[in-house]
Amino acid sequence: MTFNEGMDIDPERVSTGGGMGPKMVLGGGGGLIVLVLALLFGVNPGDVVGNLTGGENKGQSGAVDVSVCKTNSDANRYAQCRVVLTAQSLDGVWGGQLPQQTSRRYIRPEVKLFTGAIGTGCGNATSAVGPFYCPADRTTYFDTAFFQELRDKFGASGGPLAEEYVVAHEFGHHIQNLLGDSGRAQRDPKGPESGSVRLELQADCYAGIWASYAAKTPAPGGSQPLLKPLTDKDIQDALSAAAAVGDDRIQKKATGRVNPEGWTHGSSAERQQWFLAGYRTGQVRACDTFNAADLNNPPALR
Known about the structure:
Distance between the termini: 27 Å
Strand content: 5-15%
Subcellular location: Membrane
Keywords: Membrane, Transmembrane, Transmembrane helix
Oligomer: single chain
Mean pLDDT: 82
Helix content: 40-55%
Main location: membrane
Strand order of the largest sheet: 1-2-6-5
Pfam family, one: Zn_peptidase
Shape: globular
Membrane topology: Single-pass membrane protein
Largest sheet: 4 strands, mixed
Number of helices: 10
């Protein structure tokens, strides 16, 4: 998926850099999300907990250059610009769909780009944890180096929509926060039918809803959609990214075996199916993973 001609980037939509903050308690589902991503990257969870709760951190925070982000051409070329314009597209889609479908007002999440390490409302984090959402400060955090990791370490096919799917997934966690669902994972943190898995699959479904409307919804303040219509290859790129971070694939790669009792995000097949449920229906109600009897077979796809 590429951005339409003549689209202007608003670099003020994101903030960059940020030093390590003071000691803070993990808030909402952010800590769980961050810890899971740390495990995906093979990071020692104890080290991450230290970083998240104000322990010693030797990493250095760095700012990301968004001065190069001016038009759609820059978004098609640079990862950091792609995050900014994808965020603008997500604002356009959810700004219309959330109140229309749920009667809840859409409040934009903050978007912060960083390298190295950063302080958040959920504590301190490093690049090793990958992209994450912190409910406490309603902010999505991205180190764009993750996108290369997604291809090189996890075997995703790459492509713009694979990266945009990651951004849309984190915005999905923000939608859950607005709807009051973020805390549901904490009561049931792991296992194939756990609240954590259901929360993550719902965020995948919400990413699919964005993809369903992204090429139809005018950019905020404009009349033309930010993105061009999806191709079959675009969808395959997104599905490849979703599959790459499935619990079964990660466990198989790391240990040579699959243990569903340790799942926190869902299988590759489940992640793909729930993304498709959102994409094909465009409906929030189709993403009710918490009441789904069969997570590998969303009702909307039957």
